[in-house]
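ok trying again, last paste got cut off:
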Amino acid sequence: MNKPFIHIIIFLLIAFEIQAQQLPLYSQYRLNGFVINPALTGIDHRLQASASYRKQWQQMPGGPVTASASYRHYLEEDNMGVGGYFLYDKTGPSSLMGINGTYAYIIDFEPREIKRLAIGLNAGVYQYRLRGSELITDEPDDNAVFSNNISKIIPDAGVGVSYYTDKFHVGASVPQAISMNVKFEGADGLSEVRRVAHFYVMGGANFKFGVDNEYTFKPAVWAKYAVHSPVNVDINAAILYKDLISFGLGYNTSKTITAELGFEVAQRARLYYDFGFHFSQLHSYLGFNHEITLTYTIDGPEFYTY
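nice, full thing came through this time. structure:
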């Protein structure tokens, strides 16, 4: 397979992912679930801060880079969860950066047992930026190609619902619920990004075993759908030993396999590293995926399911 053909294949692959899934992808989604479903904000009664960084297709110039920082807080007297997160995502000449606030109203069905239903909302604002000067074309002087550097400020909103127990949780959400066409206009061209609603279904479980329940098995799944795109499913599972160290494996239907290692770096602070690769003939051109997440639990119960 010659290099020009490879470049065409990679370009088509990137274009398909951008059209199909406009929102950032995560391998460690269960560690920060309220970012993809606002109903998970505070549903586990935890006060937690986290930060993450993801580099996808590290071998390819301009591959996706995602960074985020978040905080969630449970308000016991009001049965509510509040939180927020900052997000930066860049792929080639395009990027988005912004903030989102999240809110969840939590209903406790059993005061003596952990059975909760939550309905959540998120709202925020993002800056879309297109650096036309970074576009590389066969005809640099083509007037039909947008070459300005320009940005747009747009609103964002989403909704979600989740049912949570000490053994499992299931939920669904609609992030980027505000669909719109974002136009970038300049003196030398026009470019347009069509934002569409996404539909997520997610779930996770928490099974303890061992003589003193020192081991915890934690499977999770995240199914994603956007208009005019195939369903994408991410499945992973991790084994945790005494809340000190964990190891996990995952598979995504985009033909990506991941491996994760997590460990306690200080009291209530955990560091997770995820390593992934695309198992196809394009792997040598795309390279590996790397993702790292640091979480710090300020307050809350010892168990958690995601």
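cool. The mean pLDDT is 83. The longest strand covers residues 115-131.
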